[in-house]
Write a structure and sequence with these properties.
11 strands; DNA-binding; N-terminal domain of MutM-like DNA repair proteins; single chain; alpha+beta; Helicase, Ruva Protein, domain 3
DNA sequence: CGGGACTCCTGAGGGC
DNA sequence: TGCCCTCAGGAGTCCC
């Protein structure tokens, strides 16, 4: 799933390519994404340049001329591709084997630029969306206004964390996935952060000790930074294009590893899988005992 | 108001 | 081989 590091990587690689290109036309193959597409929004883009792309949490913001902002969310399976003149598809996003012919079925929106380049929004499951705002109102949008701090910002700190968890009976894993507490984590990183922090996913948030909070803060930031540097953990090894499922999972310590040996060398236990709030949760019963 | 349950969607994978 | 079932889950909405 695209989480903060993957979205950040997409942002960086896309921006280099499409900044200052002029939109010639936009072809919409599917209007029924997470939110129904209004083709009029896209026809207004004709002749406009993309000034810049920014990221907030897992959202991408395309800043066009005329103060138009397109808010994009990749959902589960959303991907952007940039296709240049030589027609070589440039992967800016991840995960699936891009057997191109077959995958073209899922090209939902295609932005054509002057000069024959294209930006393709591809999304198998249609959980993602493209929605329009302007420079004045986007921050108050339904999607952005309630978001918690960026994990890598200094606003995500001990004081904030400690204050927030007071009286919170929820499992700490739910807390990590709660976008109003911290924005940008999803199921994979929540599982991995708890493993590295040696904290049991069902632990009640309010019972976390100060030292554990400090450990989690540090690990959260480190895991995300490292993953961005490596091009997004879940993208790792994907560039070979073989799309073998195991190739991206091998980076993980617990996610999808139920029944496998714990990756800590001195631990003999196997990773187990449970459900928390109906979400798959993986942990080592020995390393994450409390 | 907090938080759990449900919902959208399609393809992969397992069982028989 | 093919059919059917379950699972994957971000995040908005509903409801207790």
């Amino acid at each position: 799933m695209p989480e903060l590091p993957e979205v950040e990587v997409v942002k960086r690689s896309l921006e280099r390519k499409i900044q200052n290109l002029d939109i010639k036309k936009v072809i919409i193959n599917e209007t029924n994404l997470r939110y129904r597409i209004n083709p009029n929004d896209f026809s207004k883009l004709k002749g406009l340049k993309i000034k810049k792309i920014t990221r907030r949490s897992k959202f991408l913001l395309f800043h066009f001329k005329n103060s138009i902002i397109m808010l994009a969310h990749l959902g589960m399976t959303g991907k952007f591709f940039f296709v240049s003149q030589n027609n070589r598809k440039s992967k800016t996003s991840f995960y699936y084997n891009l057997n191109e012919k077959k995958d073209n079925i899922h090209n939902r929106v295609i932005f054509h630029f002057k000069g024959r380049q294209k930006l393709i929004y591809n999304d198998v499951r249609k959980f993602g969306f493209l929605k329009f705002y302007n420079e004045k109102n986007y921050n108050n949008s339904l999607h952005l206004k309630r978001l918690g701090p960026e994990p890598l910002s200094k606003n995500f700190n001990f004081k904030y964390f400690k204050h927030y968890i007071k009286n919170k009976n929820r499992p700490v894993k739910n807390l990590l996935m709660d976008q109003t507490f911290i924005s940008g984590l999803g199921n994979i990183y929540a599982n991995e952060i708890l493993f590295s922090s040696k904290i049991k996913p069902i632990r009640k948030a309010k019972n976390l000790k100060d030292l554990e909070i400090k450990r989690m803060l540090k690990i959260t930031k480190n895991v995300l930074k490292k993953s961005i540097m490596e091009g997004g953990s879940s993208v790792k090894n994907f560039s070979s294009l073989n799309g073998k499922k195991g190739s991206f999972q091998q980076k993980f310590n617990v996610y999808g590893k139920q029944g496998k040996n714990c990756s800590n060398a001195d631990c003999k236990k196997r990773i187990i899988k449970i459900k928390i709030s109906n979400r798959a949760t993986f942990f080592c019963p020995a390393c994450q005992k409390y």
